[in-house]
Structures are given as structure tokens and as C-alpha cells.
From TrEMBL:
Keyword Transmembrane helix set for record: yes
Keywords (A to Z) from UniProt: Membrane, Transmembrane, Transmembrane helix
Protein name in the entry: DUF3017 family protein
Any single Pfam family the record assigns to this protein: DUF3017
Organism, scientific name: Kineosporia succinea
Chain ranges passing through the membrane: 12-32, 38-63, 70-87
Length: 90
């Protein structure tokens, strides 16, 4: 048996990609804070997926070592969330 198909192996990446794609319409239709929250959520979901899922289910999220990927995505997610929250009148 070969294992799961390619779309199944990229499911975490597809979820992150959909969240990133949703951030622009949320920003345009609602507020900058809503779009920023979706973008921050995408980074945190990507970091969580990379932390808990095996490598073969994280295709598209594999960049460097697991530790570096997780740390980078969490730091970026938290930074985007804080910056979006701090936007005045957003």
C-alpha cells in the first residue's frame, strides 16, 4: 500500500491556504481586524498542524526543521494578531 493520496497528504496546507484566501475578502467586506485575525489564525493553524501531524500529512508546510517551522508560524501568527488588534479604527 502506498499511503494516502496527494490531496489527503496536503490537507493541512489546503486548510491554511483557505484561511489565507479568506483573509482578503474579510478585510474588504468587514474590517482590517477581521482579515488580520483570519491571517493570524492561518499561521497558528499551520504551526499547530506542523507540530502535531506527521510529515507526510504536512506537504506544503514543510520548510525547515519541525521546531523552526512551528516557532516561525506561531511567532508570525501572534505578531499579525497583535498588529491587527492594535490598528486604530480598524
Amino acid at each position: 500500500m502506498e499511503g494516502p493520496s496527494l490531496p489527503v497528504r496536503r490537507i493541512a496546507f489546503l486548510v491554511v491556504l483557505l484561511l489565507v484566501a479568506a483573509s482578503l475578502p474579510l478585510t474588504l467586506l468587514f474590517t482590517f481586524k477581521a482579515g488580520g485575525a483570519a491571517l493570524a489564525l492561518a499561521a497558528v493553524v499551520g504551526g499547530t498542524a506542523r507540530a502535531v501531524l506527521p510529515d507526510y500529512l504536512c506537504l506544503g508546510l514543510l520548510v525547515r526543521s519541525r521546531q523552526q517551522d512551528v516557532l516561525t508560524m506561531f511567532v508570525l501568527g501572534i505578531a499579525v494578531a497583535l498588529l491587527a488588534w492594535k490598528v486604530p479604527g480598524g
